[in-house]
Amino acid sequence: MTSAIVSGSGRKGRKRSRPAAPSFGWKPVEVTIGDVVPAGSVDVTSDNGDAMASNHYDDDSFAHRASRDLEAEPGEGVGMFYGLEVISGDQYRMITTPHSEGSDPSSITRLLVVNSPDVTTNNVDKNVQTVRKQETPARNKSKKTKKQGDTASQNPNCAPSETRSTEPSATAGRTVETCKHSKSGPVDLTTARNGKISSKALEDDQQSDTGRSVAEGSQGRQRSQQQAQAMQDAWLMQTGGVSLDLAICEALVLQSFWTPTPIQAATLPAAILGRRNVVGAAPTGSGKTLAFLLPVAQFLLQKQESMHINDEATKDDSLQALIVTPTRELALQIHREAVSLLSSSIKKNSGCGVLVGGLAHAKQSRVLASLSAFLRMHSSIDARVDVGADAGLRRNIRLEISLSLRSKRSSLRDTFIDNLHLSSGEHAHLNDLSRVRFLIIDEADRMIQQGSFPQLARILDAVQKANPTDDDDDEEELGEEGTDITEEDGDTNRLFGLPGIPGEAKVTMLNASILQQIEEVKNGSKSGPPVVEEICSGEEDVEAEGFEGGSDDGSDPISLPGLPPVYRQTFVYSATLTLPSSGSALQSKKKKRARSNKDVDGAIAEILEKSRAKGTTKVVDLSHLDKRDKAKSVPITAQTDDRSKANAIPAGPAGQFRLPPGLTLQQIKCTQRHKDSHLYAYLLTTDAGASGPSLVFCNSIAAVRRVGATMQTLGLQVRVLHAQMQQRARFKAIESLRNGKERTVVVCTDVAARGLDIPSVASVVHYDVARTVDSFVHRSGRTARGMGPGAVGSSLSLVAPSEDRIHGKIVESLQAKFESVNLDGRLFKAAQERVNLACKVVETEETERKTQQSNKWFLDNAEEAGIELDEDVFEEGLAGGDKRDRGRLREGQLAKERLQKLLAEPMQTQRFCKFLSTRTTSNHRSIAPSLPQAGGNQARRNKKRRRN
Ligand SMILES: Nc1ncnc2c1ncn2[C@@H]1O[C@H](COP(=O)(O)OP(=O)(O)OP(=O)(O)O)[C@@H](O)[C@H]1O
After folding, report:
1. 843 by DSSP, 3-state: which?
2. One domain, residues 763 and 883
3. Region Disordered: what ranges (predicted)?
4. In this structure, are 233 and 272 located in the same domain?
5. Residue 103 confidence (pLDDT) above 60
6. How does residue 268 score in pLDDT terms, banded at 50, 70 and 90?
């Protein structure tokens, strides 16, 4: 459909020659501002990187091209397409903006869009809800001339951006601008969100002589509103049509996030406009958290506004979004980010809750109780009329829970999971999962490993049960598959269908035939579970599909009494979601058939299947470097739209993980027993290691304890972090990195490898080489996070001979250059001396501590039993031991004294090596430049070379 129904424009009916169709094959259509276009005539989802080019002209030469293609007359304003506004069930109005900043929007008379003939009405219908509320003041500016008869532009005192107030419109709750002029001068109310804000601002204006502070406050508000407006426009442009709520934009302004990251730009249109499920993979530190939080926040705020209009009828205080993470720290971090995103719109209590294990029972109950209290508080707020800028914004509960699944001792987790099966109780709102609108699995490849999946499956099942999107006849069978799967594979840490290196998730999307088979099985027309077929898309060109989710596809959730069913979106994210290449896909298909035809292949497919994700799934894989195979062999399914292919890049041998651009990879090859001294020298004397907080990863808790104690004895500011620690201490370790007052070194296990976002972390050290490539990628990704030139950091691997093979695999797989760090030989010798002393001290202290602990245990138990103990049942500590023990104690004491002396003198700063450091800190003493001094064989080789 290329014709437009023209309404209310001066250019109406004007005949023009149609411009040539662009090479991407879509038909361009010329429309006039105010045009109403039939549903289905334009693709509103514009949800991949190329879509902006497909939907409108947005590059620098836009003006020229649009003017040329439209045969614009000199001085005629042309605009660009921003999105659609719903006029009625099947008609939409183009939303436009001027092509360049500063242009008068009201001058736009025509625009050029590129029209997709393939998009169905269904597609657009599903976006009605989300598009409806996306009217922005910027767009109002262009509509103003239609609605209000050019009042503003005719009044010289009424500048377009300064003198309009907004009033609620009768249609779809949109705002319509009117011109206001007051004695105190123009008032910028163009960004006011609703009528109440307008009237409040006007009151301020009329009382402007009451005090300077009022005026200043108003100016400040205006400024922040303008900034939010500018932020909204910036994101609108860069996401190809996503107009974020102004409240969200305010939060983005505070963080200066003026540009969406690639993963955000690629997924937001699909998630917000298309209401699709999203499977997203992108490098560490690339903003995936916001990519899934923004759609949630946008939905909540839009819903909030619609509730403001519709009141009780649509009031919904139940859980809206559930985010599941693999670690407690990550859950807390996401919670913090969600709160800051919503804080400007929902003041004190954002309605976000975080449930993690490891906290005291009382504390856990308080978390739950506070959420309940918030529900009650909201009920009371609902009962009264709110006035002011926040009116209506605090009215409805926005409850979001991040649930960490890693803790085996998590009573809260159990409480929550158990509560899922209760119909009433103290925290009844947690029982109702029927309204969960967003189900988000972060670090998804981790969630399906190491025993987390059964718990995750329970939650997915509970959510599905509460709001079924399918017939659940095979629920039991699916539930049992997990057990069969692990038994069959003989690997309790992995799911069936996940062969290969532990930690890699094999992903296969469901295709049409699988889904059909699932349906057939469920309908009873076919026995046996579905067989997965993986489609290697190759050259095939799957046409864009209409949006299949929601109530129109016949598989809608069962309605709850009085409330319409909730359409649920599932988001699955990680930095390492490995999509299979064509070869592996075919192989696994054969293997799969030979092994069993019972299971849905692929972990992510499993998650999507378990959560009964309906509708089109958008797959965005930005996590791999190799784009040569981009056009080939991407597993694609009927459930995955064709535009996903452009982003889905195969992994495997040809696809290397993309690392953060500011990350420097380094390596030191040394013996296991020299690792401590290399670590110490690196942290203390190299610019890379000494420039900020560091994370040192070990493969075991015992190693964490030992290395942590040694580095602490050496005078570094050290904290340890592992899963067996008290939760409070875990938080403290993370906070020590975050507050950045001191340069902390956190020695940790992989519990800190994923998700943690602490931009100040300057270096990551793999004390033990990571066991998998995924693990290496995640660990290294704790540094060089975010965007821009400041996002730099280094990742050092200490490679012992026994780790050469696995390190080689990592190097090969990443195809990245690892720089060698050659420490100055003299420096290394000095470091080694200190480390030897520290080790002796640690060993002595450890023996003493153990003895004391054991004696205390005896004493406590004897006291409890009322027994008097003989002196000789106590173990003697080194102090009271035999001659040899006392000798060891003496050695320990001497080592301590010697070490203290050495530590009082600063270590020499490294002056010559790959990491040349001329920095002098208060702790470091510069020495005269020295000649290179490599150690051992290397030194001899260098000498020989020089002689020759
Ligand atoms: N649009 C943006 N512009 C600038 N910075 C951003 C933007 N979005 C997010 N960030 C910042 O980027 C950093 C990394 O983001 P985030 O923690 O979401 O990364 P991630 O992709 O989830 O990483 P990981 O895979 O390690 O979990 C954060 O400090 C965040 O504040």
Report:
1. helix
2. no
3. 1-25, 119-227, 466-493, 923-948
4. yes
5. no
6. very high
**Are 705 and 844 found together in one domain?**
no
Q: What is the dihedral of CA 607, 609, 610, 614, to 10 degrees?
A: 110
State how far the alpha carbon of 414 is from the alpha carbons of 368, 431, 457, 475, in Å: 13, 13, 14, 21
Give the Cα separation of 100 and 387 in Å (integer): 37
Asked if residue 780 has its Cβ within 6 Å of ligand 1, the reply is no
Which residue range is the domain that position 401 belongs to?
224-306+317-374+395-466
In a domain, 545, yes or no: no
The SS3 call for residue 150 is coil
Domain count of the fold of the chain: 3
In short, whether 759's Cβ falls inside 6 Å of ligand 1 is yes
Return the percent helix, strand and coil in the chain, to nearest 5: 45, 15, 45
- In a 13 Å sphere around the CA of 457, the CA atoms on its Cβ side amount to 21
Ligand 1 pocket, residue 547 CB under 6 Å: no
CB 662 near ligand 1, within 6 Å? no
| 520 CB-contact burial (10 Å; exposed 0-12 / middle 13-18 / buried 19+) | middle
CATH value at residue 425: 3.40.50.300
Q: How confident is the model at residue 74, as a pLDDT?
A: 57
Kindly state if the Cβ of 785 falls inside 6 Å of ligand 1.
yes
* Separation of CA 587 and ligand 1 centre (Å): 36
C-alpha 786 – ligand 1 centre gap (Å):
5
Beta-carbon neighbour count of residue 728 at 10 Å? 12
Q: Is residue 499 part of a domain?
A: no
Which stretch, 119-123, 327-331, 493-497, has highest mean pLDDT?
A: 327-331
Domain contains 69:
no
Q: Are residues 899 and 872 in the same domain?
A: yes
Let me know if residue 777 belongs to a domain.
yes
Residue 474 above 50 pLDDT? no
0.90 surpassed by complex ipTM? yes
Counting Cα atoms < 13 Å in the Cβ hemisphere of 49 gives 13
Of 301, 298, 247, the C-alpha closest to 273 is 298
* Structural tokens at position 113: 């869009």
Average pLDDT over residues 132-153: 33
Q: How far is the CA of 787 from the centre of ligand 1 (A)?
A: 8
My answer on whether 341 and 443 are in the same domain is: yes
pTM, entire model: 0.60
Provide the pLDDT for residue 700.
95
Distance between CA atoms of 323 and 352, rounded to whole angstroms?
Answer: 11
